[in-house]
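User: Sequence in, structure out. Go.
Assistant: Echoing your sequence, followed by the structure tokens.
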Amino acid sequence: MHENHFEALKLVQELAALLRANSMPEGREVSVHAPYTSLRTVQTALETDHVPVALGAQSCHFEDAGAFTGEVSAEMLAKLNVSYVIAGHSERRQLFSESDEIVRKKIDAILRHGMCPIICVGETLEERSGGEEKEKVARQLHAALDGRSHEVIAHVVLAYEPIWAIGTGVTATVADAEEMCAYIRQELEAIGGAAASSTRIQYGGSVNVENAEQLLMGKNIDGLLVGGASLDATGFMKIARAGL
């Protein structure tokens, strides 16, 4: 919950200027996920200036329409040319009591309207300390993906968010992050077979300019889900170029 639409526009304009000066290499994809109130402004700025950045949203409701005051549907987001929608972010699960069932319904809605879900999974410090981290992540993965086609599994994005490393300044070590992302890939193979090799797996949890390149060295870490560090255009572009 950062940046009103004026601030969001300024940030996107700064990103556009940086990309004009030094374009992103082919094969590296970047998306920005603005608050609902800024999405139309950001969409217009990205499309008008032909900025090579995809538009994303932070969440959505699982129904297309109805008596859900204050909610925003996946259908509404699709009409704004949103490409990616985050589903099951740890803050949504913890602060707004979103269950695995609700997250699955949101993924259904996102897919139904032709967008790509970024599906977040991760454990608390208590769960990790108790040796339950893999059990927790596996449960979230199966709840989100069981019964889906191999084509869908190859298309979605998974984001491993160790809850104990979000907004705390504590980052999982590269070994921690790679171990869990490798485990996620293994579980995906059990669900979707060979399609798992095509699924993008991100790491998210206090990602910053200093640790981005090291994290991307993980064999099973295909990208990064960036939080507060994305609010600085220069720093965000450095993260986006990490490892290149």
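User: And one key feature?
Assistant: Residues 59-240 form a domain with the TIM Barrel fold (CATH 3.20.20.70).
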